[in-house]
Description:
Layout: H1 17-25, E1 29-34, H2 71-85, E2 90-95, H3 105-116, E3 121-128, H4 135-144, E4 149-157, H5 161-166, H6 173-183, E5 189-196, H7 203-213, E6 220-225, H8 233-240, H9 248-260, E7 267-270, H10 289-302
Parallel strand pairs: 1-2, 2-3, 3-4, 4-5, 5-6, 6-7
Helix pairs in contact: 7-9, 9-10
The structure holds iron/sulfur cluster (SF4).
Amino acid sequence: MKNPFIYSNDNKRYHTWNYYLKQKYHSKVFKVPLNANFSCPNRDGTCGVGGCTFCTSLGSGDQVQEMFEPLDIQYDANLKVMKNKWPQGKGFAYFQAYTNTYCSLETLKETIEPFFYKEDVLGLCIATRADCLEDEKIEYLNKLAQEKEIWIELGLQSIYDETAARINRGHTYATFVDCVERLKNTDLKICVHLMNSLPNETKDMMITSAKTIGQLPIHAVKIHMLYLMENTVLAKEYLEHPFPLLSKEDYIDVVVRQLEYLPKEIIIQRLTGDGVKEQQIESFWMLNKTVVLNDIDKEMVKRNTYQGRMLEK
Ligand code: SF4
């Protein structure tokens, strides 16, 4: 069957990150993950303690190599891993762990500029929260973005405030929308993270989250399944009072339907995540990323659907 999706040069029926990067940089592009050892306002008591209940003590940066070493050592170690896979590839420096703008403007500058100005770095990806991007930081980052691409990765997970409260997110959907509004007239690129299978969420709620953020002026989305990692608050809650988790088939069904409501221009940076096998306590099917991604492709072909189909007149 011919692929009806226009932003694709392979069998994918959604706008892949690889497709975007190939068009722009004509090369394989990877992210070099870093842990700058910041904290989060919902960890240190500013708006909560303990962090999001699914988050590990490493602030969702568990894949960073040499994560307790200085940033330049981390960068070299992680770049080496990437270069072993893709010797000709080029990289973005990815400030992944914790909330990377939860600091003073001066600290932010000191942290990111050594990497931003590296000759071999194409740009930056900065993971942060909607309540930690003050106007002065946006203005500063936007100035840098005139020179190289800068992606702001905003964790949201769900548009529902009751879910945010349930997972101790520490901010509301309105705070997220306010942040997107303040970013929208800049050259900063916005990538939003969504998580499927959070407690008390139905499939319809997950689909509505995707549909709703798809109407905002954002550039990319990352979707993944809830990771239940050992020693997290949510894993402990689950072990005491198990709540339903999506099966692989249900996850694929939700993702395909979420994609149908996301405009074609929105880049899909990921549709499944990288758990840490040794720490995961459930949903082991997600460890085989290739199978999950292939099954999403097959399901889209079977339904003869593609990203944005439900938005067509
Ligand atoms: S905001 Fe991010 S790093 Fe902070 S607790 Fe939540 S998931 Fe973890």
